[in-house]
Task: structure prediction
Amino acid sequence: MNRKLLLSTFATALGGLLFGYETAIINGALPFLTDYFEFSDFSKGFAVSAALFGSIAGAFTIGRPSDRFGRVVMLKVMALLFIISSFGTGFAWNISTLVIFRFIGGIAVGGCSVLSPLYIAEISPAKYRGRLGITFQLAIVTGILLAFFVDYLLLNTGPNNWRFMLVSMALPSLIFFILLQTVSRSPRWLVKEGREQEARDVLTTLDRDANVDEMVEEISRTLRDHSEVKLSYVIKHGYLNLIILGVLIGMFNQFTGINIVMYYATDIFRSAGFSTHSAIGQTVAIGFINLIFTLVAMYLIDKVGRKKLLLTGTLGMSVFLGLFSYAFMNGVFPDWSLLLFLLGFTAFFSSSQGAVVWVLLAEMFPNDIRAFGTSIGSFSLWFFNGVTTLLYPIVVGMFQPGMGTGYVFMFYAIMTFFSFFVFKKYLYEMKGKTLESLSDKTH
Result:
């Protein structure tokens, strides 16, 4: 892996850092936002999920402009949206403005969730694609940990602490925008646009040992006119089952409950009797475990393969989700066990689904529908993320204290266990294969 490849991957993966930061920073700010704006259960869920519904819009609509203008150009637009969102939420004067600017930030998150892994997959040599693809997830969990840590540091900065927390995202957003100026166009996008010599130049800088002419010819062979990629095109060319699988991957990823942990962990620990200071401190521990086990997955993915990681982690998650649910509802374990069970769940998630899902969505679709398919898979993920995040405080409020959270996590345990059998039957292994080889596999 040469310097240009590593720098391009790093710069693009910063979209993942902002993804994690934007979605997690609300965790520590939420208790203070609740007091400042006097949130009800519904308005709390709506304020948190506004960014997620923005992510749905961003993920669903980014495919076509990324095909027209290129991945890098649209990533620069997403960086500017992050900057706008950070200042808008930090200086929000009522619930409406908070929601609007969180929605704008969500558009950027959804766009980056498609574009960053897509671009990394398109520039990566096959033998390194798993590890390089995981840099996006590594950046996400780093952003989450950074957000939790910033929340903790700003906890005692006065009544405007939540404003400082939210506006803090402006700095990494600006760094992201600056570094994107050094990133080359995707070689596969250049071939699609008929700019084959530029594609050869980029491929040479990324992998000096590659047979560039052969790669360009193979890319050209598998590309069709992207402007025709609609549902009718997908059905006509036999890709519908692949699209459905992408939707299921996004759905099951959210039915693990990981984002309830990332958004509401402070509220969950407070409802279990911990102080706000202690609750936010425990989220830092979750973020740290998230990072460590993402590094484990990064080491293993190109050795063990995507499918084995996914299946092992899914079983582990099911166990710890079930234990957490039982402990929360029955109180038969000491209080520290709740943190232990969430740490166990997070470790299995980070070393499996958390690391693998973005790699899968970026590489599982053939060249001619990759942007479309990745966009649909990401849309599914964000749709179920938004729905579950909106409903969580409402559902919990319908039951007596402790029971609502327990029921929700029991549902996640059951759905995660069920997903094991879906993944085992329908997923195929892409370890060490070129992106172009998938076109032959699906026909």
